Amino acid sequence: MADKKKILVKAPVKIEYLNNEVSEKVTYLKLPADFEQYSLKEDIKKGGVQFHEIARLTQKKRISRVVSLSADSSEMGLMAITYLAMHLKERRIYEDEMFFDCDDAFKDGREWHESRMKIPVIPISEIADFLRDDTIPFGNEGFMMAQAQNKSKHQPYWRSCRKESICIVIEKDSASFGCMDILNLFAKNRNVFVLFLENEGTGFMDNLPFESMDTAHFLALQNNFILSYAADAANVSFGKSDRQVYYKNILKQNLSQRGIKVKRGFSYERVVNLANSVDKKAVCEMMDKIIEYALKDVEGLENVVFQNSDFDFVDHFMRENSDKNTGTDGRKLMETNLVGIQDIKQQVYDVINVMKYNKMRSQMNIGGSHYHNVHVMLGAPGTAKTTVAKYMGMMMFDEKLLPDNRFICINGAELKGMYVGHSAPKTKALFEKYDVIIIDEAYSIVESDGRTDSFGNEAIAQLIIELEKHSTDKLIIFAGYGGKKVTEKDNRMQAFMDANPGIKSRITSTFYFDSYSAEEMAQIFLRIAKISNYKTQPETELVVRDFFEKRVGDKDFGNGREARSLLENAVLFAARRIMAQKKNSYTESELMTLTLDDIKAAAKRMEQGFGMKQRNRQQIGFSKKAMDGCTV
């Protein structure tokens, strides 16, 4: 049986110094000698969705000599180039199919000798810095003159790269329109991989000789390059929620290739989060270093089995790193951005405190230090349940109580699959990908009378398994319409809890969100307006409060959502007023100001839409369906 294909666990970057008069630094990709054992398909199967376009490129009958790649990070871009280079090698597109690499790139220590297994990685700033002359325009004839003038200078190693493959790195902050000329230096090389990196500070450039280029111009430069060289192009970037899954799988593969096993319950996220916090541009490389650090005191490297305590040093590094990079402050955001709800805020702080308390007990090996981080949030739509859950997750991550703060709000009905056997894996995947999980309208898993169908039963059965497994390393919240002030008929969340004792028994606490008062709604409106860069007049608060005095008692009152809708309607009337002036130009103040008339017109329109004079009129802009979604 053939051995299982391997995947790249980090970019194969090597750094050497030539033994010449300037001790020249050479960065290159060294293709693995057993390159045929590596599989791009296997890497994608392990979560490497960022390589999909690379895989499609390898399916082409003919790959262009010049290939343009844009990437999230230098590490991912160089891994993509490695896969491409290995694929080209496997295709045997080279003249000498029996080529044997004798690792002679540094055979005399003074000069770089080209090799088909080594791809120099050259920052374009390094090339431009050598060719650039302060007194000669860079580009066209000036470019050639600069070449001539520099003949007397030390010739960098890449000047001898005339035949084999090379990689040129172009960062946004080092990009120059002269790069189109620079690439002509390598017109005869077998393959030219050009890696475009928009993110700053990948580590290749220390002294940037050019002014920063904005994103639009940088994209235009890439497109110009692709068209000019008839280059193949591919994008190497993660989806919104794919990054963590991929790095976790890479870590597992890294440990597997070293023959290291882990005990059940091992927290891969802990290692991934440290690597990501230290160096987002080279996470795979950093995970490798963390493993090496964990192994440094291990006697004998045979039959190594890691457990969580072997990585307790991670907490120290995470604290050190968070002191330098404060990031988002969940507590500050909650106090600054949320009006009222003081009881809810205190309840959140109490949960954080008990988790910190239990963590200290656990670190002292005191038994019984467990807290089930599963909660219920009850209240009308628009009462900030989702926002509180987000900030709660941020605070727990800030305090190292969660491995990450990947957040998702999902409707309960979405857990039900399309066919028998589909609901369980959907539910399980939710807990694998996210750390802060809010299941809104949780009662939609069951029927209105409290019964469950086969899809709902399957989802609930898997939910109970996941709650048991992840109640201490995730934040899980069931949310929906309900509470003390809701009639028994309308209290669907209570019906859901009563129908599922397995879930109910695993819930630690309940948060009750009351609807906002008219005064609080006015404050929310002013806060949203300020955040959205609109200026209001002093009398605005009174006008808004008067409007919401008429709304807060209605059964269909949308709470915080209506403050946002009032603002959006006011902006509509502001735009109508501004555009009617038909001026050639407007001041910044004109475009930022909402007048009292704008807000009064918006309030009148919403009154008519809600039928505040005729309660049975059809609502405009606030359908029941829209109001039943995730809270704001």
Can you walk me through this structure?
With 632 residues, the protein is an alpha/beta fold. Helix content is 43%, strand content 11%. The strands form three sheets. The chain has a seven-stranded mixed sheet, sandwiched between helices. Helix 9 (268-278) packs across helix 10 (283-295), helix 19 crosses helix 21 (560-580) and helix 21 crosses helix 23. It starts with 12 loop residues before the first strand and ends in a 5-residue tail after the last helix. Mean pLDDT is 77; it is low at 93-102, 134-146, 200-212, 323-327 and 612-632.
Could you list some keywords that capture this structure?
single chain, 632 residues, alpha/beta, 7-stranded mixed β-sheet, 5-stranded parallel β-sheet, 11% strand, globular
Strand content: 5-15%
Question: What gyration radius follows from the Cα positions, in whole Å?
Answer: 30 Å
Strand order of the largest sheet: 1-2-4-5-6-3-7
| Residue share in helix | 40-55%
Overall 3D form: globular
Beta strand count: 14
Sheet having the most strands: 7 strands, mixed
Q: Give the helix/strand class.
A: alpha/beta
Cα(first) to Cα(last) distance is: 55 Å
Topology diagram in text:
Elements: E1 13-17, E2 25-30, H1 40-45, H2 52-58, E3 66-71, H3 74-91, E4 118-123, H4 124-131, H5 141-149, E5 166-171, H6 179-182, E6 192-197, H7 215-228, E7 232-236, H8 243-257, E8 261-262, H9 268-278, H10 283-295, E9 305-306, H11 313-324, H12 330-337, H13 342-363, E10 374-379, H14 385-398, E11 407-411, H15 423-433, E12 436-440, H16 454-470, E13 475-480, H17 492-499, H18 501-504, E14 509-513, H19 518-531, H20 540-549, H21 560-580, H22 588-592, H23 596-610, H24 624-627
Parallel strand pairs: 3-6, 3-7, 4-5, 5-6, 8-9, 10-13, 10-14, 11-12, 12-13
Antiparallel strand pairs: 1-2, 2-4
